[in-house]
Design a protein that fits this description.
261 residues; mainly alpha; Pectate Lyase C-like; Serine Threonine Protein Phosphatase 5, Tetratricopeptide repeat; 2 domains; 8 helices; elongated
Length: 261
């Protein structure tokens, strides 16, 4: 996009960008600077509305973008090094080739954002929402993140997808007991009773070693769920009748509640 296409009057810029609160004079000056020059290092853009904005290649290094709304913004190749993006909305934003070194993304909404080839060295991602983020650099992904994404997919009913996340957790940290139990629930939901029972037994042993009584009870509940279905099958019992389903569903809910604590 030609840089001159962003040369728009100040009043129009304020309307298009849509500041969500009345702007201070210095905010508008910085906003106009961004629109006119595409360079706004250290600018004050706190709480600015930049939804769907084409900000490819802009220099916003060190800028204050706290609580800014950058939903679906095009930030390809942008310089956001050291920027303050605490609480910013960047869902579905294109952050391909973006420089995010040292950026503070605490509590930022990064769901479904694209991170292909982005540089996130030293970026702070505490409590950031990253479910569905695409091509997030492996260097910033933690076992806790993967586990959280797995639980989200379990709640959505995407059990195969959740198992993929739990497997990645366990590849990173084989002692992540909750991931084993959570995978067992997803396997159970997919009617993989053998896999579910194996995960339940493994998790129970690990919870015993950790002296985690609540975990032991939850693992036992999963084992009970598997056993009930196996008994129902052997006796040609109607596993679809309401009382049976309600009982098993309550057990499943109890196990998932433990994992979501």
């Amino acid at each position: 996009m030609n840089r001159h296409s962003l040369l728009i009057p100040l009043t129009v810029a304020a309307t298009v960008v849509g500041l969500s609160t009345p702007a201070r004079a210095e905010d508008l000056v910085h906003l106009q600077q961004l629109m006119n020059t595409r360079e706004c290092s250290g600018c004050d853009l706190f709480n600015a509305g930049l939804v769907n904005s084409n900000l490819s290649g802009v220099d916003l290094s060190g800028a204050d973008l706290r609580d800014a709304n950058l939903n679906r913004a095009n930030l390809r190749g942008a310089n956001l090094q050291g920027a303050n993006l605490r609480g910013a909305v960047l869902s579905y934003a294109d952050l391909t080739d973006t420089d995010l070194r040292g950026a503070d993304l605490t509590g930022a909404d990064l769901r479904e954002a694209y991170f292909t080839n982005s540089n996130m060295t030293g970026a702070i991602l505490t409590n950031a929402f990253l479910v569905g983020a695409v091509n997030l650099p492996e260097s910033v992904i933690t076992a806790d993140m993967l586990y959280s994404w797995g639980l989200t997919e379990t709640q959505r009913g995407n059990y195969s997808g959740s198992i993929d996340y739990y497997n990645r957790v366990l590849a990173m940290d084989p002692d992540y007991t909750n991931a084993i139990l959570a995978r067992g629930i997803s396997r159970y939901r997919l009617a993989d009773m053998e896999g579910a029972l194996t995960d339940a037994a493994t998790a129970e042993q690990m919870y015993v070693a950790e002296n985690n009584v609540a975990g032991q009870e939850s693992a036992l509940q999963l084992s009970t769920m598997v056993a009930l279905y196996e008994q129902a099958s052997e006796r040609e019992y109607d596993a679809g009748q309401p009382n049976f389903l309600n009982f098993v569903s309550s057990l499943s809910t109890m196990v998932l509640r433990f994992l979501l604590r």
